[in-house]
Design brief:
The structure is a single chain. The chain is α/β, with parallel strands linked by helices. It has a single domain, classed as Roll (2,3-Dihydroxybiphenyl 1,2-Dioxygenase, domain 1). Helices cover 20% and strands 32% of the residues. The chain contains three helices and eight strands. The protein has helices spanning 17-27, 37-40, 77-86; strands spanning 8-12, 31-33, 45-49, 52-58, 71-73, 92-94, 100-106, 112-118. The strands form two sheets. The protein has a four-stranded mixed sheet, covered by helices on one side. Strands 5-8-7-6 form a four-stranded mixed sheet, with no helix packed on it. A hairpin with a 5-residue loop joins strand 7 (100-106) and strand 8. The protein is globular. It starts with 7 loop residues before the first strand and ends in an 8-residue tail after the last strand.
Length: 126
């Protein structure tokens, strides 16, 4: 029986680790977590924020994911989008998901990332 998603794996080109660290830690505010030594020898890097883990693995014939993407739930989406934009990350708003505010961005390898926050319905009588 499935209980939760443990992590999401994205691919990246060889030699991209410094750019990934700058983006995932510096821009998104995630913490790099150590890879087991046998996996670290393959390159790439892993990041975590709360219970969310993103693993970036090196792929020789890498092509960025333009459609497939992780959907990352955030709090304070307007401020979070401003943080990304201020650090040079692209922010593209999309209002097509009812009940949510969301935007898309791309990591330095060109992988698509979705950031979303549920919208609270107005209180009765408001």
């Amino acid at each position: 029986m499935l209980a939760a998603i443990d992590h999401v794996q994205l691919a990246a080109p060889p030699g991209c680790e410094d750019a990934l660290r700058a983006y995932y830690a510096g821009v998104l505010g995630m913490t790099e977590i150590p890879k087991p030594p046998v996996l670290a020898a393959r390159g790439g890097c892993w990041f975590q924020a709360g219970t969310v883990q993103l693993h970036l693995g090196v792929e020789e014939d890498f092509r960025p994911a333009k459609k497939a993407h992780p959907g990352l739930r955030v709090t304070g989406i307007e401020a979070y989008a401003a943080r990304l934009a201020a650090r040079g990350a692209p922010v593209t708003w999309d209002d097509n998901l009812p009940g949510h505010r969301r935007f898309y961005s791309e990591d330095p390898a060109g992988n698509r990332l979705e950031f979303l926050e549920p919208v609270r319905p107005p209180a009765p009588g408001a």
